[in-house]
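2024-03-11 09:14:02 DEBUG pipeline.ingest accepted 1 chain
2024-03-11 09:14:02 DEBUG pipeline.ingest length=289
2024-03-11 09:14:03 DEBUG pipeline.predict start
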Amino acid sequence: MLNRAYVSDKAARYLLWASAAAVTLTIVAILIFVGKEGLLTFADVNPFAFFFSPEWDPPQGHFGALPFFVGSITATLIALLLGGPLGLACAIFMAKVSPGWMRSVMRQASNLFVGIPSVVYGYIGMTVLVPWSRETFGGQGVGVLVAGMILAVMILPTITTVAEDAIRDVPGPLEEGALGLGATRWQTIWGVLLPAARPRILAGVILAFARAFGETTAVQMVIGNAPRLVPGLTSGTSTLTSQIIMEMGQTPPGSPWNRALFMMAFGLVVNSMLMILLVRWVSNRGVAK
């Protein structure tokens, strides 16, 4: 019996090591492949022109990706400005205000948002938000405003879930001590619970940023897909992901155009890795304190 348990333990350990190695090798392979193809862009394109030129016209040899970086960042920031406060408010309500049955219902509803395909969000944006934006603000209706609104809904579950867990995990004596000193419920939440949970809340916001920055289908359906710098909140522009999905299938392999798209994809991969490292750093600072 002892030998059987020992063998099972060793087998499980080796299996876990093999799984971790497979995941690591897969990530490294993706980085090498995408990075190699992307960096070859600079054999034909000036790096400064690629990152800082607003002109994207591949048939004419212009590969300025600045409009796509700006479009991605602008749409993501709008999503965080709209979804961040709302997600935090929902987390506070679920953690410290709502009764248990309501919290359970809201948690299930929040999880339901995660399972909705992004194409459904994009379709709702096309049929509801784009006409509303056109009638309200004028212009074409499509653009970073509608894209940001769609992304705000899509990142709500991430912010809400992480923030709620962070608030609920604050040690009880901190809250009880504040209430015992005469603080109101809101003063306790604002002055004690939120500061104590801040590192994990920030980690949730960073994860939401990475989620919104890399979204493709929903954004592509409502952004307008015009390769130009953001002319206005309700005018067509493009993002890194939407431009890649539109053009990758029509570019000859190995061409400067194809490699420029790979470089944009490499930028997305690097952004995701930086966000993960930032989450770990923020979380570790919270643990250290």
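2024-03-11 09:14:41 DEBUG pipeline.report The CA atoms of residues 85 and 159 lie 9 Å apart.
2024-03-11 09:14:41 DEBUG pipeline.predict end
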